[in-house]
Every structure is written in C-alpha cells, then in structure tokens.
Amino acid sequence: MSTYIKKALIVEGATFGIPAPAEIKAKLAYDSNWAQRGLLAVYNEQMSDEQAAKKTKHLNLVGFSKFDAEFLSSMAQQLKRKRALSPKQMMWVHRKMPKYANQLFLLSLTARRAKNV
Description:
Elements: H1 3-15, H2 21-30, H3 32-45, H4 48-53, H5 69-81, H6 87-96, H7 101-115
C-alpha cells in the first residue's frame, strides 16, 4: 500500500474519530482493555476452521499470523469463556498485539463506513 493511500486512510479514520495506527499500537502495548478488545476483534476475523484449530490456514490478510495463532487464539478463547487473563498472559498479549494495529485500524474504518452507508 502506498504512503499516499495510508495517509488518506488515516485522515478518513480521523473524521470518524478512529485513532491512527500508531496510537492504536501504543494503546495495545500498554492498555489492557484495548489489548483484550483488540485480541477478540482479530480473533473474530479468523475463519471458523482457523479458530477451531488455533492455526492460520488461509492467506487472507486477516486474523493472527501463523506464529501467533495458537497462543493468541487460546488467549481469546479464554477471554470468551472466563473474561480474565493472568498478569503473565496479559504481558504476552501486550507484547504481541501491537503488530495487529493496522489490521484493527482497517477493521474500525470498515465498520464505520458500513454504519454511514
């Protein structure tokens, strides 16, 4: 994606009140609420067979990377069941989730566009 397109998307996102990817990245790294909500949002974008297997099976540019799929899927499933992660688990979620900031930005932008149509 070109720099021009990225800047245009960030400007469009700002008109909807969506934080820029850099701000989302920082929040994912330090804010537990943002990290957990982001974790669930990315998990929900995975295909159902990927969720069940806790693996990346489709190259569709959404969901977790093949390196993170097993661990982060497990954390998301735990959140869906118990709604609580241990401090050590949260430390790892904070370390891994910032790489999904662009994906979360685009998900938010798509959702806002759909609301306004």
